[in-house]
Amino acid sequence: MNYRYLCTMGANIAPEANFAAARELLSQFGHAYYSRAVYTQPVAMTTNHQFLNALFIFVTDLDPVSLKEQFNTIEQRLGRDRDDPLSAQKDRPMDIDILGDCCSSEAWQQVPSYLQCVVPNLRPIVEQLSH
Q: What is the predicted pLDDT for the residue at 34?
């Protein structure tokens, strides 16, 4: 069964290099359609490093739990310490999250405000995948 997820990725430690590495690692588990990446100011944390963020649609045969496990493994391979209880408040080499089924309006409502500008990049792809 093919699942189609709307996902986010972001990094503020070596963001360009880590985006390239994450994309390569993600290609092992399915096919991704990426929005353009945008630099944003950090949210809910204090740092001098801007984030590089993007949305992507991921088509895979992995269920949500298995996919999130793979996302966590990729984050760890790129240097994120997921065991640190404060990891969400620290600089990170990669953060990958599932917002939901890319064909559901609920998933699109989860898109952070700082990524609304890239939503139009992915809408035509969702339309193609829906047919």
A: 97
Q: Which residue has the tokens 């993007």?
A: 54
For the chain, how many structural domains are there in total? 1
Q: What is the mean pLDDT of the segment spanning 44-51?
A: 86
Residue 6: which H helix or E strand, with range? strand 3-11
If DSSP codes are grouped into helix, strand and coil, which group holds residue 32?
A: strand
Tell me the residue range of the domain where 29 lies. 3-130
Query: Which pLDDT does position 82 carry in this prediction?
Result: 80
CATH of the domain at 106: 3.30.70.560
pTM attached to this predicted model? 0.93
